[in-house]
Structures are given as C-alpha cells and as structure tokens.
C-alpha cells in the first residue's frame, strides 16, 4: 500500500511543481516590469522602431505612443512615419510616462526627448492622426487633438494630397471611392461613385487603407458594398 501511495503522490507533486514554476515566472515578469518602470519619466534607450507609433526599449518592452495612430507600414505614409520616428528617437534615451496598456498588451505612454514631447512632434508633422482613448491626461490629449487639426489645415504628411484625396491623381478614370467606416459589427466597407449624393465630399484616405476602384465589380471583389446614398446608376467617364 505504501508503494501505491507514492505512485499517487507523484502526479500531485508534478502539478504542484508546475504551479510553483508558473507563479515564480509571473513574479519574475512583474519584478522586471517594476525594474523598468520604477518611476514616471525614467530614461530608457530606444533599441528598435517598429512603425510610426511604437518602439522597443530594454527588457523587450514595446511602447505605444498615447493618442497617436500612425498608418500601417503598407499604407500611404506608413514607411515615412516609421522613418520619421526613427530619426527622432532610435538609439537615443527617452523619458517615458506610461498611461496604461492597449489590447495588444503594449505599454501606452507619452514620450519625451529632453523637453520635446515626441507624440506632439509626430502629430505636427502629419506622420499620424490623433486617436482618442490613448490616455487619461486630458490636457495632453487636447493638445494633440489641436495639433492634429493644425496639421490637417496645413496639409502635412498624411493630410497632403498624397494620402488625402477627393480626386484620383494617378488615374482620374478610376473614380470610385472605397471607404472604411466603423460599424456596430466591426468595419464597414462601402463605395461611392459620381452621382451618389455623398460622393463630392467623400474623401479617400489612403493612409488607413481606403482605395480607388475602376469599376463596381472591382470594388465588390475587394469586399466593398454600394453606399445607401447611391440612387443613380454609375456612368463610366
């Protein structure tokens, strides 16, 4: 019987060992994070720039800039935004004021190079748009929102005709506008053509993945549906 008891105890010991190991691993992770962020605005070296609004510091911590939304790398101005952020901070020591974490578990922060607020510089240059919900610092959020509006008025970066278009400068004959919008069930993809009531004021924002199409068939194949504001049939130019 004693031998049977020992056999029964072995799985329990293994399970207990796994629980202890997991607990130690979590504690080590938390200690590391506390070591990295012992206090607000501590200085860290930027090891890698991932895109126009995120970068990596020691201990493999990814930082996402608060209230900033830069284009994906494959979209209009995505590479320029990454290069711009890299020239500002790559290989330099920056001060980080964290505000929380995003859905991808990245730390959200306001970032300073000396007295320069990097979030503000990016917005001013038109490398990214203002995004709400990035922090609970209303004063800085309001500042970035104001700077984003100024960049738009001055047609900087993503707000220039390169990315922000009412007409197709490459091929005017391909004049169907494919737009992305928020919907209660996710992203809504619609297209507008000349004759649709909203067409003239609909902007194609290439920096967020919106597109121009040459035909309705092409738009539908890309997953777009005709706007409910299109009452007339499309006439090719």
In brief:
With 237 residues, the protein is α+β, with helices and mostly antiparallel strands. The protein folds into two domains: 118 residues, OB fold (Dihydrolipoamide Acetyltransferase, E2P); 63 residues, no CATH class. The chain contains five helices and 15 strands.
Describe this structure in words.
This protein is of the alpha+beta class and 237 residues long. It has 5 helices and 15 strands. The strands form 4 sheets. Strands 1, 2, 3, 4, 6, 7 and 8 form a 7-stranded mixed sheet that branches. The protein has a 4-stranded mixed sheet with strand order 14-11-12-15. A two-stranded antiparallel ribbon has the order 5-9. α3 (118-124) packs parallel to α4.
| CATH architecture title of the largest domain | Beta Barrel
Q: Biggest sheet, in brief?
A: 7 strands, mixed
What is the helix fraction of residues, given as a range?
25-40%
Number of helical regions: 5
Blueprint of the fold:
Blueprint: H1 2-36, E1 42-45, E2 48-49, E3 54-57, E4 61-65, E5 68-69, H2 78-89, E6 93-101, E7 107-113, E8 116-117, H3 118-124, E9 129-130, H4 138-153, E10 164-165, E11 176-183, E12 186-192, E13 204-205, E14 211-213, H5 216-221, E15 225-226
Parallel strand pairs: 4-7, 12-15
Antiparallel strand pairs: 1-6, 2-3, 3-4, 5-9, 6-7, 7-8, 10-13, 11-12, 11-14
């Amino acid at each position: 019987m004693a031998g049977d008891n020992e056999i029964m105890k072995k799985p329990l010991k293994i399970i207990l060992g796994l629980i202890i190991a997991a607990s130690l691993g979590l504690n080590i992770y938390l200690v590391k994070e506390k070591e990295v962020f012992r206090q607000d605005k501590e200085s860290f070296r930027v090891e890698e720039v991932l895109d126009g609004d995120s970068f990596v510091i020691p201990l493999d911590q990814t930082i996402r800039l608060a209230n900033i939304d830069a284009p994906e790398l494959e979209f209009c101005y995505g590479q320029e935004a990454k290069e711009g952020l890299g020239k500002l901070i790559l290989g330099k020591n920056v001060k980080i004021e964290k505000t929380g974490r995003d859905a991808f578990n990245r730390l959200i922060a306001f970032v300073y190079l000396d007295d320069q607020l990097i979030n503000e510089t990016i917005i001013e240059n038109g490398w990214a748009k203002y995004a709400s919900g990035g922090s609970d610092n209303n004063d800085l959020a309001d500042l970035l929102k104001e700077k984003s509006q100024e960049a738009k008025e001055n047609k900087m970066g993503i707000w220039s005709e390169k990315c922000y278009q009412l007409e197709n400068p490459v091929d005017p004959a391909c004049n169907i506008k494919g737009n992305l919008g928020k919907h209660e069930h996710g992203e809504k993809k619609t297209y507008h053509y000349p004759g649709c009531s909203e067409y003239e004021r609909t902007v194609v924002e290439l920096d967020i993945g919106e597109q121009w199409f040459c035909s309705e068939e092409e738009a539908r194949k890309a997953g777009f549906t005709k706007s409910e504001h299109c009452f007339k049939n499309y006439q090719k130019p």
